[in-house]
Amino acid sequence: MIAANRVVLTPSLKVLQSDKIRFEPALPDWKMTAIHRLKMSNAIKVILVFKERFWPEGMWDVVCTDSFIPEFWMTTYPTTDHSQHLRGLCAVVCFIAGEKAERLSASMPPEEMVARSLQQLDDLFATAACRAPATRALHSSHVADWAKEEYVMGAYSFPSHGAEAGDRQALAAPLDGTVFFAGEATHPAINPCMQAAMESGLRAAGEVLAAARPAGSRL
């Protein structure tokens, strides 16, 4: 058991909406209303690592709105003293979000997602010399399905029907100077992204420091 005078909570919105965290006393109605009016959806990233780059140099992003994979992000691994084993490797992140990610999470096994992603890349970058450049160059793969992560349960919060102005601020509001909330869903402006999560953490840290400051202190 850990005891503390103050705590910063950073669970995802889906975790707050579930029964994974028990609050005693229960969270006030105004905060629970905000938690349940906001929504969070899924995202899937099919991460493909390749032994060589087969796309044009300088290409970082491809959008295919009506295809199996709506968006690809390309990168090469920066090599450091601690990552010599990655030298020469390239990666493509195949990004699926929203309702499509929800459907695929429930209906398609990861190995099929990998196969479909490779096929789409083969179709995009086939040449007369090689009709399946992605399949030929594949080194390894991994599927990150955020809805299936037990302590995350989803990817991003989003503006949703029924939500009201001020819901994110209500979610972020501390309770009695002891319980503080952070995470991308608490940011009123730039959710959903890592930047929002980072900024919300700085905001919550400032609130903790202010609450811990002795009354009348000028520090």
User: What would you report as the Rg, rounded to the nearest angstrom?
Assistant: 22 Å
Here the CATH topology of the largest domain equals: Polyamine Oxidase, Chain A, domain 2
Would you report the number of β strands?
9
CATH class of the largest domain: Alpha Beta
Strand order of the largest sheet: 4-5-6-3-7
* Structural domain tally: 2
What is the N-to-C order of secondary-structure elements (H for helix, E for strand)? Answer: EHHEEEEEHHHEEHEH
Derived structural class: alpha+beta
Number of helical stretches of at least 4 residues: 7
Name the beta content range.
15-25%
Write the layout of secondary structure elements.
Layout: E1 7-9, H1 13-17, H2 29-37, E2 39-41, E3 43-50, E4 61-63, E5 71-76, E6 90-97, H3 98-107, H4 110-125, H5 133-137, E7 138-145, E8 156-158, H6 167-172, E9 179-181, H7 194-212
Parallel strand pairs: 1-9
Antiparallel strand pairs: 2-8, 3-6, 3-7, 4-5, 5-6
GO molecular function: oxidoreductase activity
InterPro entries: Amino_oxidase, FAD/NAD-bd_sf, Flavin_monoamine_oxidase
Organism: Tetraselmis chuii
Brief overview, please?
With 219 residues, the protein is of the alpha+beta class. 32% of the residues lie in helices and 21% in strands. The strands form 3 sheets. Strands 4-5-6-3-7 form a 5-stranded antiparallel sheet. Strands 1-9 form a two-stranded parallel sheet.
